[in-house]
Design goal:
Blueprint: E1 26-28, E2 31-33, E3 48-51, H1 67-71, H2 74-80, E4 84-87, E5 91-92, E6 104-108, H3 115-127, E7 131-136, H4 146-152, E8 164-165, E9 169-170, E10 176-177, E11 191-194, E12 199-202, H5 217-230, E13 256-259, H6 297-310, E14 318-320, H7 326-330, E15 343-344, H8 348-352, H9 361-374, E16 382-384, H10 393-397, H11 402-411, E17 415-419, H12 439-442, H13 449-452, H14 490-495, H15 500-510, H16 514-518, E18 520-522, E19 530-536, E20 542-548, E21 554-556, E22 569-575, E23 589-591, E24 595-597, E25 602-607
Parallel strand pairs: 3-4, 3-17, 4-7, 7-13, 13-14, 14-15, 16-17
Antiparallel strand pairs: 1-2, 5-6, 8-12, 9-10, 11-12, 18-19, 19-20, 20-25, 21-24, 22-23, 22-25
Helix pairs in contact: 11-15
Protein backbone atom coordinates (compact mmCIF):
# COMPACT_ATOMS: atom_id res chain seq x y z
CA UNK A 1 0.00 0.00 0.00
CA UNK A 2 1.25 3.48 -0.81
CA UNK A 3 2.08 5.62 2.21
CA UNK A 4 1.96 9.40 2.52
CA UNK A 5 4.49 11.29 4.61
CA UNK A 6 3.24 14.68 5.66
CA UNK A 7 6.48 16.20 6.83
CA UNK A 8 7.87 18.21 3.97
CA UNK A 9 10.01 15.50 2.39
CA UNK A 10 11.29 13.58 5.39
CA UNK A 11 10.48 12.75 8.97
CA UNK A 12 12.92 13.32 11.78
CA UNK A 13 12.47 13.26 15.54
CA UNK A 14 14.49 15.51 17.79
CA UNK A 15 14.83 15.13 21.56
CA UNK A 16 16.26 18.37 22.95
CA UNK A 17 16.48 20.56 25.98
CA UNK A 18 18.12 23.92 25.44
CA UNK A 19 19.28 26.77 27.63
CA UNK A 20 21.25 29.70 26.39
CA UNK A 21 24.80 29.90 27.90
CA UNK A 22 28.39 30.33 26.73
CA UNK A 23 31.56 28.75 28.13
CA UNK A 24 35.17 28.07 27.18
CA UNK A 25 37.34 25.28 28.55
CA UNK A 26 39.38 22.29 27.43
CA UNK A 27 39.30 18.63 28.31
CA UNK A 28 42.34 16.50 28.89
CA UNK A 29 43.06 12.82 29.31
CA UNK A 30 44.71 13.77 32.60
CA UNK A 31 41.89 15.94 33.82
CA UNK A 32 40.60 19.35 32.84
CA UNK A 33 42.00 22.84 32.53
CA UNK A 34 40.16 26.04 31.69
CA UNK A 35 41.45 27.36 28.39
CA UNK A 36 40.20 30.94 28.40
CA UNK A 37 41.29 33.03 31.42
CA UNK A 38 38.89 35.86 30.61
CA UNK A 39 35.88 36.76 32.74
CA UNK A 40 33.54 33.75 32.87
CA UNK A 41 30.01 33.81 31.53
CA UNK A 42 27.18 34.00 34.08
CA UNK A 43 26.47 30.28 33.87
CA UNK A 44 30.09 29.45 34.59
CA UNK A 45 29.98 31.32 37.86
CA UNK A 46 27.68 29.10 39.87
CA UNK A 47 24.98 26.49 40.06
CA UNK A 48 21.81 26.28 38.01
CA UNK A 49 18.90 25.66 40.40
CA UNK A 50 15.93 23.77 38.96
CA UNK A 51 12.53 24.88 40.28
CA UNK A 52 9.65 22.48 39.72
CA UNK A 53 7.05 25.25 40.04
CA UNK A 54 3.99 23.26 41.11
CA UNK A 55 5.99 21.92 44.06
CA UNK A 56 8.06 24.96 45.07
CA UNK A 57 5.69 27.38 46.83
CA UNK A 58 1.96 28.12 46.65
CA UNK A 59 0.95 31.78 46.99
CA UNK A 60 -2.80 31.54 46.26
CA UNK A 61 -3.81 28.67 48.59
CA UNK A 62 -4.95 26.28 45.85
CA UNK A 63 -2.38 23.65 46.85
CA UNK A 64 -0.25 23.98 43.72
CA UNK A 65 2.93 26.01 43.47
CA UNK A 66 2.94 29.10 41.26
CA UNK A 67 5.07 31.95 39.93
CA UNK A 68 4.43 34.32 42.82
CA UNK A 69 5.48 31.50 45.12
CA UNK A 70 8.83 31.52 43.35
CA UNK A 71 9.02 35.31 43.72
CA UNK A 72 8.44 34.94 47.46
CA UNK A 73 11.61 32.83 47.78
CA UNK A 74 14.05 34.55 45.42
CA UNK A 75 15.90 35.92 48.44
CA UNK A 76 16.43 32.33 49.58
CA UNK A 77 17.89 31.37 46.20
CA UNK A 78 20.19 34.37 46.28
CA UNK A 79 21.42 33.47 49.77
CA UNK A 80 21.86 29.88 48.65
CA UNK A 81 24.56 31.05 46.27
CA UNK A 82 23.08 29.84 43.00
CA UNK A 83 23.38 31.99 39.89
CA UNK A 84 20.66 30.77 37.55
CA UNK A 85 17.04 29.83 38.30
CA UNK A 86 15.62 27.32 35.84
CA UNK A 87 11.85 26.85 35.92
CA UNK A 88 10.10 23.79 34.48
CA UNK A 89 7.27 24.45 31.95
CA UNK A 90 4.73 27.13 32.90
CA UNK A 91 2.91 27.66 29.59
CA UNK A 92 -0.76 26.97 28.98
CA UNK A 93 -1.38 23.25 29.03
CA UNK A 94 -4.10 20.63 29.63
CA UNK A 95 -1.54 19.18 32.09
CA UNK A 96 -1.73 15.64 30.77
CA UNK A 97 2.03 15.54 31.42
CA UNK A 98 2.19 18.46 33.86
CA UNK A 99 3.14 21.21 31.44
CA UNK A 100 5.15 19.23 28.91
CA UNK A 101 2.06 19.19 26.69
CA UNK A 102 1.82 22.85 25.68
CA UNK A 103 -1.37 24.12 24.08
CA UNK A 104 -0.28 27.77 23.82
CA UNK A 105 3.34 28.95 23.82
CA UNK A 106 2.33 32.58 24.36
CA UNK A 107 0.44 32.46 27.65
CA UNK A 108 1.10 31.38 31.22
CA UNK A 109 -1.09 28.57 32.47
CA UNK A 110 -3.58 29.81 35.03
CA UNK A 111 -2.36 27.18 37.49
CA UNK A 112 0.88 29.13 37.74
CA UNK A 113 -0.56 32.64 37.51
CA UNK A 114 -0.82 35.37 34.92
CA UNK A 115 1.41 37.14 32.45
CA UNK A 116 1.65 39.95 34.99
CA UNK A 117 2.94 37.45 37.55
CA UNK A 118 5.52 36.33 35.02
CA UNK A 119 6.63 39.93 34.47
CA UNK A 120 7.02 40.36 38.23
CA UNK A 121 9.10 37.17 38.35
CA UNK A 122 11.37 38.44 35.59
CA UNK A 123 11.85 41.82 37.26
CA UNK A 124 12.46 40.40 40.73
CA UNK A 125 14.80 37.70 39.48
CA UNK A 126 17.01 40.30 37.86
CA UNK A 127 16.73 42.62 40.87
CA UNK A 128 18.17 39.82 42.98
CA UNK A 129 21.08 39.44 40.59
CA UNK A 130 19.88 36.07 39.32
CA UNK A 131 19.36 34.75 35.79
CA UNK A 132 16.10 33.15 34.68
CA UNK A 133 15.80 30.08 32.46
CA UNK A 134 12.53 28.71 31.15
CA UNK A 135 11.82 25.23 29.88
CA UNK A 136 10.62 25.13 26.31
CA UNK A 137 9.27 22.01 24.63
CA UNK A 138 9.81 22.16 20.85
CA UNK A 139 9.49 18.44 20.16
CA UNK A 140 5.71 18.25 20.47
CA UNK A 141 2.61 20.18 21.48
CA UNK A 142 -0.65 19.27 23.15
CA UNK A 143 -3.27 17.79 20.86
CA UNK A 144 -5.40 20.73 22.02
CA UNK A 145 -3.05 23.24 20.41
CA UNK A 146 -4.74 25.09 17.57
CA UNK A 147 -1.95 23.99 15.25
CA UNK A 148 -2.85 20.35 15.74
CA UNK A 149 -6.57 20.95 15.42
CA UNK A 150 -5.98 22.70 12.10
CA UNK A 151 -3.47 20.09 10.95
CA UNK A 152 -5.93 17.31 11.70
CA UNK A 153 -8.43 19.12 9.48
CA UNK A 154 -5.78 19.73 6.78
CA UNK A 155 -6.14 23.51 6.91
CA UNK A 156 -3.62 25.21 4.62
CA UNK A 157 -0.01 25.26 5.77
CA UNK A 158 -0.98 23.55 9.02
CA UNK A 159 -1.52 20.32 7.09
CA UNK A 160 2.09 19.22 7.54
CA UNK A 161 2.78 20.79 10.97
CA UNK A 162 2.79 17.29 12.49
CA UNK A 163 4.01 13.84 11.46
CA UNK A 164 1.21 12.04 9.63
CA UNK A 165 1.20 8.69 7.83
CA UNK A 166 -1.38 6.45 6.20
CA UNK A 167 -2.32 3.11 7.72
CA UNK A 168 -0.22 0.11 6.79
CA UNK A 169 -3.50 -1.67 6.18
CA UNK A 170 -6.64 -2.73 8.01
CA UNK A 171 -7.29 -5.87 10.05
CA UNK A 172 -10.32 -8.16 9.94
CA UNK A 173 -12.20 -5.73 12.18
CA UNK A 174 -11.40 -2.87 9.79
CA UNK A 175 -9.08 -1.37 12.43
CA UNK A 176 -6.24 0.67 10.99
CA UNK A 177 -2.77 -0.88 11.35
CA UNK A 178 0.04 1.54 12.35
CA UNK A 179 2.73 2.30 9.73
CA UNK A 180 5.46 0.51 11.74
CA UNK A 181 6.44 -0.87 15.15
CA UNK A 182 7.69 2.38 16.67
CA UNK A 183 6.68 2.74 20.31
CA UNK A 184 5.89 5.60 22.65
CA UNK A 185 8.15 6.25 25.62
CA UNK A 186 5.05 5.70 27.74
CA UNK A 187 4.39 2.31 26.15
CA UNK A 188 2.18 1.16 23.30
CA UNK A 189 2.34 2.24 19.68
CA UNK A 190 3.78 5.66 18.89
CA UNK A 191 1.06 6.04 16.28
CA UNK A 192 -2.51 7.19 17.01
CA UNK A 193 -5.33 7.01 14.50
CA UNK A 194 -7.30 10.15 13.71
CA UNK A 195 -10.82 9.55 12.40
CA UNK A 196 -11.00 13.22 11.46
CA UNK A 197 -8.02 13.04 9.11
CA UNK A 198 -8.07 9.34 8.28
CA UNK A 199 -4.37 8.97 9.08
CA UNK A 200 -2.06 8.17 11.96
CA UNK A 201 -0.09 10.85 13.80
CA UNK A 202 3.21 10.20 15.56
CA UNK A 203 3.70 10.76 19.30
CA UNK A 204 6.89 9.79 21.11
CA UNK A 205 5.28 10.38 24.47
CA UNK A 206 1.58 10.54 25.43
CA UNK A 207 -1.19 10.23 22.84
CA UNK A 208 -2.02 13.82 23.80
CA UNK A 209 1.49 14.96 22.76
CA UNK A 210 1.74 14.81 18.93
CA UNK A 211 5.23 15.41 17.53
CA UNK A 212 5.86 18.49 15.45
CA UNK A 213 7.27 18.05 11.95
CA UNK A 214 10.55 19.93 11.57
CA UNK A 215 10.66 19.02 7.91
CA UNK A 216 8.08 21.73 7.49
CA UNK A 217 9.58 25.17 6.89
CA UNK A 218 6.39 26.61 8.34
CA UNK A 219 7.03 24.89 11.67
CA UNK A 220 10.65 26.01 11.73
CA UNK A 221 9.69 29.59 11.02
CA UNK A 222 6.86 29.46 13.55
CA UNK A 223 9.37 28.48 16.21
CA UNK A 224 12.04 30.96 15.15
CA UNK A 225 11.03 34.09 13.30
CA UNK A 226 7.74 34.87 15.00
CA UNK A 227 9.32 34.35 18.39
CA UNK A 228 12.22 36.61 17.53
CA UNK A 229 9.95 39.33 16.24
CA UNK A 230 8.28 39.61 19.62
CA UNK A 231 11.46 39.66 21.70
CA UNK A 232 13.45 42.87 21.97
CA UNK A 233 17.02 43.25 23.06
CA UNK A 234 17.83 45.76 25.74
CA UNK A 235 21.34 46.97 26.47
CA UNK A 236 22.97 45.27 29.45
CA UNK A 237 19.95 43.08 30.13
CA UNK A 238 19.14 39.51 29.11
CA UNK A 239 16.27 39.29 26.68
CA UNK A 240 15.91 35.77 25.33
CA UNK A 241 12.57 34.12 25.78
CA UNK A 242 14.35 31.75 23.43
CA UNK A 243 13.92 31.86 19.73
CA UNK A 244 11.21 29.21 19.99
CA UNK A 245 8.97 31.12 22.42
CA UNK A 246 6.61 31.99 19.63
CA UNK A 247 4.62 35.21 19.88
CA UNK A 248 5.25 35.82 23.56
CA UNK A 249 2.79 38.57 24.23
CA UNK A 250 4.45 40.49 27.05
CA UNK A 251 7.59 41.42 25.11
CA UNK A 252 9.42 41.38 28.43
CA UNK A 253 12.92 40.19 29.11
CA UNK A 254 14.12 36.88 30.43
CA UNK A 255 17.59 35.48 30.48
CA UNK A 256 17.56 32.27 28.51
CA UNK A 257 15.90 28.89 28.06
CA UNK A 258 16.07 25.10 27.96
CA UNK A 259 14.55 23.12 25.09
CA UNK A 260 12.97 19.70 25.55
CA UNK A 261 13.50 17.21 24.09
CA UNK A 262 15.95 17.39 21.19
CA UNK A 263 17.63 14.24 19.92
CA UNK A 264 14.22 12.88 18.85
CA UNK A 265 12.95 15.95 17.03
CA UNK A 266 13.39 14.32 13.61
CA UNK A 267 12.83 10.76 12.45
CA UNK A 268 13.75 8.80 9.34
CA UNK A 269 11.77 9.44 6.17
CA UNK A 270 11.35 5.78 5.32
CA UNK A 271 9.42 4.80 8.49
CA UNK A 272 11.05 1.35 8.61
CA UNK A 273 10.36 -0.98 11.48
CA UNK A 274 12.90 -0.74 14.28
CA UNK A 275 14.99 -3.78 15.16
CA UNK A 276 14.32 -5.39 18.54
CA UNK A 277 17.16 -6.37 20.87
CA UNK A 278 14.97 -8.93 22.66
CA UNK A 279 12.12 -10.09 20.42
CA UNK A 280 10.40 -11.78 23.38
CA UNK A 281 9.62 -8.36 24.85
CA UNK A 282 8.69 -6.30 21.81
CA UNK A 283 6.33 -4.12 23.87
CA UNK A 284 9.23 -2.52 25.75
CA UNK A 285 10.34 0.71 23.98
CA UNK A 286 13.73 0.53 25.70
CA UNK A 287 14.55 -2.62 23.72
CA UNK A 288 13.93 -1.08 20.31
CA UNK A 289 16.96 -0.06 18.29
CA UNK A 290 16.18 3.63 17.81
CA UNK A 291 18.32 4.16 14.74
CA UNK A 292 15.49 5.83 12.80
CA UNK A 293 14.05 7.92 15.63
CA UNK A 294 17.01 9.64 17.31
CA UNK A 295 20.09 11.65 16.31
CA UNK A 296 19.12 12.00 12.68
CA UNK A 297 21.46 14.22 10.58
CA UNK A 298 18.79 16.86 10.09
CA UNK A 299 18.48 17.25 13.85
CA UNK A 300 21.84 18.96 13.99
CA UNK A 301 20.91 21.31 11.17
CA UNK A 302 17.86 22.46 13.11
CA UNK A 303 19.99 23.00 16.21
CA UNK A 304 22.56 24.92 14.19
CA UNK A 305 19.87 27.29 12.92
CA UNK A 306 18.63 27.86 16.46
CA UNK A 307 22.16 28.53 17.71
CA UNK A 308 22.72 31.09 14.96
CA UNK A 309 19.59 32.90 16.06
CA UNK A 310 20.41 32.65 19.76
CA UNK A 311 23.88 34.08 19.20
CA UNK A 312 22.35 37.38 18.10
CA UNK A 313 21.15 38.02 21.64
CA UNK A 314 22.92 39.39 24.69
CA UNK A 315 23.72 36.97 27.53
CA UNK A 316 22.59 33.57 26.41
CA UNK A 317 22.87 29.86 27.08
CA UNK A 318 21.61 27.00 24.97
CA UNK A 319 21.30 23.71 26.87
CA UNK A 320 19.98 20.57 25.22
CA UNK A 321 18.55 17.42 26.75
CA UNK A 322 19.87 14.33 25.04
CA UNK A 323 19.74 10.70 26.18
CA UNK A 324 22.19 8.65 24.16
CA UNK A 325 25.67 7.15 24.09
CA UNK A 326 28.44 9.59 24.99
CA UNK A 327 29.70 9.84 21.40
CA UNK A 328 26.25 10.92 20.20
CA UNK A 329 25.72 13.32 23.11
CA UNK A 330 29.00 15.10 22.37
CA UNK A 331 27.85 15.82 18.82
CA UNK A 332 25.41 18.35 20.26
CA UNK A 333 28.31 20.60 21.27
CA UNK A 334 29.25 21.08 17.63
CA UNK A 335 32.88 21.42 16.60
CA UNK A 336 35.52 24.01 15.73
CA UNK A 337 33.61 25.20 12.67
CA UNK A 338 30.00 24.78 13.82
CA UNK A 339 28.66 25.75 17.24
CA UNK A 340 25.53 23.97 18.40
CA UNK A 341 24.45 23.82 22.06
CA UNK A 342 26.53 25.52 24.70
CA UNK A 343 26.24 22.17 26.40
CA UNK A 344 24.07 19.04 26.33
CA UNK A 345 22.98 17.88 29.75
CA UNK A 346 25.29 15.37 31.40
CA UNK A 347 23.02 12.64 32.78
CA UNK A 348 25.78 10.06 33.08
CA UNK A 349 26.50 10.95 36.70
CA UNK A 350 22.82 10.79 37.61
CA UNK A 351 22.59 7.36 36.01
CA UNK A 352 25.83 6.01 37.51
CA UNK A 353 25.22 7.28 41.06
CA UNK A 354 22.05 5.33 41.59
CA UNK A 355 22.79 2.47 44.00
CA UNK A 356 24.92 2.83 47.14
CA UNK A 357 25.46 -0.91 47.51
CA UNK A 358 27.26 -1.16 44.18
CA UNK A 359 28.77 2.35 43.94
CA UNK A 360 32.56 2.63 44.01
CA UNK A 361 35.17 5.35 43.71
CA UNK A 362 36.07 3.90 40.35
CA UNK A 363 32.49 4.52 39.18
CA UNK A 364 32.55 8.20 40.16
CA UNK A 365 35.99 8.80 38.67
CA UNK A 366 35.14 6.96 35.43
CA UNK A 367 31.84 8.85 35.08
CA UNK A 368 33.56 12.22 35.45
CA UNK A 369 36.36 11.23 33.07
CA UNK A 370 33.85 9.91 30.55
CA UNK A 371 32.58 13.45 30.01
CA UNK A 372 35.87 15.31 30.29
CA UNK A 373 37.77 12.93 28.01
CA UNK A 374 35.09 12.92 25.29
CA UNK A 375 34.13 16.59 25.41
CA UNK A 376 35.33 18.56 22.36
CA UNK A 377 38.20 20.93 23.05
CA UNK A 378 37.15 24.36 24.21
CA UNK A 379 33.72 23.25 25.45
CA UNK A 380 32.18 23.47 28.91
CA UNK A 381 31.15 20.55 31.14
CA UNK A 382 28.13 20.22 33.40
CA UNK A 383 26.97 17.85 36.13
CA UNK A 384 23.44 16.68 36.90
CA UNK A 385 22.95 14.82 40.17
CA UNK A 386 19.15 14.89 40.37
CA UNK A 387 15.97 16.20 38.76
CA UNK A 388 12.19 15.84 38.78
CA UNK A 389 12.33 12.55 36.88
CA UNK A 390 14.64 10.67 39.25
CA UNK A 391 14.65 9.68 42.90
CA UNK A 392 16.27 12.10 45.33
CA UNK A 393 19.91 11.68 46.30
CA UNK A 394 19.12 10.93 49.97
CA UNK A 395 16.81 8.10 48.90
CA UNK A 396 19.02 6.72 46.13
CA UNK A 397 22.34 6.87 47.93
CA UNK A 398 21.70 7.58 51.60
CA UNK A 399 21.21 10.65 53.81
CA UNK A 400 24.88 10.60 54.78
CA UNK A 401 25.98 11.08 51.15
CA UNK A 402 23.99 14.25 50.45
CA UNK A 403 26.69 16.74 51.44
CA UNK A 404 29.54 14.76 49.94
CA UNK A 405 27.91 14.54 46.52
CA UNK A 406 26.76 18.16 46.54
CA UNK A 407 30.37 19.07 47.27
CA UNK A 408 31.60 16.98 44.36
CA UNK A 409 29.29 18.48 41.72
CA UNK A 410 29.72 22.04 43.04
CA UNK A 411 33.52 21.86 42.96
CA UNK A 412 34.06 19.98 39.72
CA UNK A 413 34.94 22.11 36.69
CA UNK A 414 31.80 23.12 34.85
CA UNK A 415 28.22 24.01 35.69
CA UNK A 416 26.47 22.07 38.48
CA UNK A 417 22.69 21.66 38.33
CA UNK A 418 20.72 21.33 41.58
CA UNK A 419 17.11 20.17 41.79
CA UNK A 420 15.07 22.08 44.36
CA UNK A 421 15.19 20.42 47.77
CA UNK A 422 18.45 18.57 47.23
CA UNK A 423 20.30 21.31 49.11
CA UNK A 424 18.43 20.36 52.31
CA UNK A 425 18.52 16.60 51.72
CA UNK A 426 14.84 16.07 50.93
CA UNK A 427 13.82 12.44 50.50
CA UNK A 428 11.38 10.63 48.25
CA UNK A 429 7.85 10.54 49.64
CA UNK A 430 5.64 7.46 49.68
CA UNK A 431 2.65 8.16 47.47
CA UNK A 432 -0.40 5.90 47.64
CA UNK A 433 -2.09 4.66 44.50
CA UNK A 434 -5.04 6.91 45.29
CA UNK A 435 -2.80 9.99 45.43
CA UNK A 436 -0.71 9.14 42.36
CA UNK A 437 -0.75 11.86 39.68
CA UNK A 438 2.13 11.01 37.33
CA UNK A 439 0.79 9.53 34.04
CA UNK A 440 3.86 7.30 33.86
CA UNK A 441 2.89 5.75 37.20
CA UNK A 442 -0.83 5.64 36.48
CA UNK A 443 -0.52 3.67 33.28
CA UNK A 444 1.21 0.80 35.12
CA UNK A 445 -1.71 0.31 37.50
CA UNK A 446 -1.94 -0.29 41.23
CA UNK A 447 0.45 -3.25 41.30
CA UNK A 448 3.39 -1.59 39.55
CA UNK A 449 2.92 2.17 39.84
CA UNK A 450 5.60 2.54 42.52
CA UNK A 451 8.25 1.20 40.13
CA UNK A 452 7.52 3.90 37.55
CA UNK A 453 5.91 6.92 39.20
CA UNK A 454 7.92 10.14 39.43
CA UNK A 455 5.64 11.62 42.08
CA UNK A 456 7.89 10.66 45.06
CA UNK A 457 10.59 13.14 44.02
CA UNK A 458 8.09 15.87 43.09
CA UNK A 459 6.42 16.45 46.47
CA UNK A 460 6.16 19.99 47.92
CA UNK A 461 9.25 21.89 49.08
CA UNK A 462 9.64 21.76 52.85
CA UNK A 463 10.10 25.35 54.00
CA UNK A 464 9.44 24.96 57.72
CA UNK A 465 8.05 22.62 60.34
CA UNK A 466 4.71 24.40 60.62
CA UNK A 467 1.38 24.17 58.82
CA UNK A 468 1.70 22.41 55.43
CA UNK A 469 5.51 22.69 55.75
CA UNK A 470 5.21 26.36 54.82
CA UNK A 471 4.38 25.37 51.24
CA UNK A 472 0.81 26.70 51.31
CA UNK A 473 -1.76 28.30 53.58
CA UNK A 474 -4.48 26.34 51.79
CA UNK A 475 -6.27 23.21 52.91
CA UNK A 476 -4.45 20.70 50.70
CA UNK A 477 -1.49 20.13 48.41
CA UNK A 478 -1.42 18.66 44.91
CA UNK A 479 0.84 15.86 46.18
CA UNK A 480 1.20 14.82 49.83
CA UNK A 481 3.94 16.49 51.87
CA UNK A 482 6.65 14.16 53.15
CA UNK A 483 5.89 13.30 56.80
CA UNK A 484 9.53 14.06 57.68
CA UNK A 485 9.03 17.81 57.04
CA UNK A 486 9.38 18.64 60.75
CA UNK A 487 12.92 17.22 60.73
CA UNK A 488 13.94 18.24 57.20
CA UNK A 489 13.09 21.83 56.25
CA UNK A 490 14.73 25.10 55.28
CA UNK A 491 13.92 27.05 58.46
CA UNK A 492 15.37 24.41 60.77
CA UNK A 493 18.55 24.12 58.73
CA UNK A 494 18.97 27.89 58.54
CA UNK A 495 19.04 28.06 62.33
CA UNK A 496 21.20 24.99 62.90
CA UNK A 497 24.92 25.25 63.55
CA UNK A 498 25.57 22.53 60.98
CA UNK A 499 23.14 21.46 58.28
CA UNK A 500 22.89 20.36 54.65
CA UNK A 501 21.76 23.88 53.75
CA UNK A 502 24.67 25.62 55.46
CA UNK A 503 27.09 23.14 53.95
CA UNK A 504 25.70 23.86 50.48
CA UNK A 505 25.93 27.62 51.02
CA UNK A 506 29.51 27.32 52.26
CA UNK A 507 30.59 25.26 49.25
CA UNK A 508 29.01 27.72 46.78
CA UNK A 509 31.20 30.43 48.36
CA UNK A 510 34.30 28.24 48.14
CA UNK A 511 33.51 27.69 44.48
CA UNK A 512 34.14 31.39 43.84
CA UNK A 513 37.87 31.01 44.51
CA UNK A 514 40.12 31.23 41.46
CA UNK A 515 41.28 27.64 41.83
CA UNK A 516 37.76 26.38 41.22
CA UNK A 517 37.00 28.91 38.50
CA UNK A 518 39.99 28.13 36.31
CA UNK A 519 42.01 25.33 37.89
CA UNK A 520 42.63 21.91 36.43
CA UNK A 521 41.41 18.66 37.95
CA UNK A 522 43.33 15.48 38.69
CA UNK A 523 42.37 12.24 40.45
CA UNK A 524 44.97 11.08 43.00
CA UNK A 525 43.20 8.25 44.85
CA UNK A 526 40.12 6.16 44.19
CA UNK A 527 39.15 2.60 45.03
CA UNK A 528 36.10 0.58 46.02
CA UNK A 529 35.24 2.88 48.94
CA UNK A 530 37.11 6.13 48.31
CA UNK A 531 36.93 8.87 45.71
CA UNK A 532 39.02 12.02 45.56
CA UNK A 533 40.06 14.81 43.24
CA UNK A 534 42.40 17.80 43.37
CA UNK A 535 41.71 21.23 41.92
CA UNK A 536 44.87 23.25 41.32
CA UNK A 537 45.91 26.48 39.63
CA UNK A 538 49.39 27.93 39.49
CA UNK A 539 49.80 30.76 41.95
CA UNK A 540 46.75 29.74 44.01
CA UNK A 541 46.04 27.17 46.74
CA UNK A 542 45.34 23.58 45.74
CA UNK A 543 42.40 21.68 47.23
CA UNK A 544 41.80 17.99 47.81
CA UNK A 545 38.21 16.68 48.00
CA UNK A 546 37.76 13.23 49.53
CA UNK A 547 34.58 11.12 49.78
CA UNK A 548 34.05 7.96 51.83
CA UNK A 549 31.51 5.92 49.89
CA UNK A 550 31.40 3.15 52.48
CA UNK A 551 28.54 2.79 54.96
CA UNK A 552 31.03 2.48 57.85
CA UNK A 553 33.55 4.88 59.39
CA UNK A 554 37.08 4.40 58.03
CA UNK A 555 40.61 5.69 58.37
CA UNK A 556 42.15 6.10 54.92
CA UNK A 557 45.78 6.35 53.86
CA UNK A 558 45.55 8.67 50.87
CA UNK A 559 49.10 7.82 49.82
CA UNK A 560 48.30 4.17 49.17
CA UNK A 561 47.51 3.70 45.50
CA UNK A 562 47.90 7.43 44.75
CA UNK A 563 48.61 8.19 41.11
CA UNK A 564 51.15 10.86 42.03
CA UNK A 565 52.88 12.14 45.20
CA UNK A 566 50.71 13.85 47.81
CA UNK A 567 51.77 16.05 50.72
CA UNK A 568 51.82 14.58 54.21
CA UNK A 569 48.95 16.67 55.54
CA UNK A 570 46.17 19.06 54.66
CA UNK A 571 44.03 21.70 56.33
CA UNK A 572 40.33 20.92 56.69
CA UNK A 573 38.23 23.56 54.92
CA UNK A 574 34.83 21.94 55.35
CA UNK A 575 33.33 18.57 56.33
CA UNK A 576 29.91 17.08 55.71
CA UNK A 577 27.25 18.39 58.07
CA UNK A 578 26.70 14.81 59.20
CA UNK A 579 30.25 14.64 60.55
CA UNK A 580 30.60 14.16 64.30
CA UNK A 581 34.40 14.10 64.32
CA UNK A 582 34.85 16.94 66.80
CA UNK A 583 38.60 16.38 66.96
CA UNK A 584 38.95 17.62 63.36
CA UNK A 585 37.10 20.95 63.10
CA UNK A 586 37.52 23.28 60.14
CA UNK A 587 41.03 24.68 60.11
CA UNK A 588 42.59 21.57 61.65
CA UNK A 589 45.66 20.02 60.07
CA UNK A 590 45.22 16.30 59.45
CA UNK A 591 47.56 13.59 58.23
CA UNK A 592 46.84 12.17 54.79
CA UNK A 593 48.35 8.89 56.02
CA UNK A 594 45.47 8.42 58.46
CA UNK A 595 42.51 10.51 57.34
CA UNK A 596 39.47 9.76 59.49
CA UNK A 597 36.27 9.60 57.47
CA UNK A 598 32.78 8.89 58.69
CA UNK A 599 30.36 6.83 56.64
CA UNK A 600 29.37 8.80 53.53
CA UNK A 601 31.45 11.78 54.61
CA UNK A 602 32.93 14.34 52.26
CA UNK A 603 35.89 16.49 53.27
CA UNK A 604 37.63 19.36 51.48
CA UNK A 605 41.24 20.06 52.43
CA UNK A 606 43.58 22.87 51.46
CA UNK A 607 46.97 21.46 50.56
CA UNK A 608 50.21 23.15 51.70
CA UNK A 609 52.05 25.20 49.13
CA UNK A 610 54.88 23.39 47.39
Amino acid sequence: MRRSYMFGGAFVVLFIAIIVIIVVCVSSKNGWKKQNPDEPEFWEKGAVYQVYPRSFSDSDKDGTGDLMGVVDHLDYLKELGVVTVWISPIFESPMKDFGYDISNYTTIDRIFGTMNDFEVLVTETHRNGLKLVLDFVPNHTSNQHEWFIKSESKEGNYTDYYVWAEAKGFDENNTAIPPNNWMSEFGGSAWEWSDTRGEFYYHQFLVEQPDLNYRSEHVKEEMKVSGRSKIRKKKNQSCILEDMLSNIQSQKYISRQRLLPFCKIIVSFALQDLGIDEPTDSDNPALLQHIFTTNQPETFQVLREWRELVDKYHEKVLMVEVYSEVEDVMRYYGNDSVSLAHFPFNFFMLEALNNRSTLTGYDIKDTISLWLDNMPEGKWPNWVLGNHDNGRVASRLGKDMVDALNMVVLLLPGTPLTYNGEEIGMEDTFISWEDTKDPEGCRWGRDHYQEHSRDPERTPMQWNGGYMAGFTNGDNTWLPINPDYEEINVALQKNATHSHLKFYQHVTKIRQEETFKKGEITFPTYDDSTFSFIRSLEGYPSYLAVVNIATVNRTVNMHLGANFPLPNEGEIVICSSTSEAKETPNGSMVSLDSLALMAGEGILLKLPEK
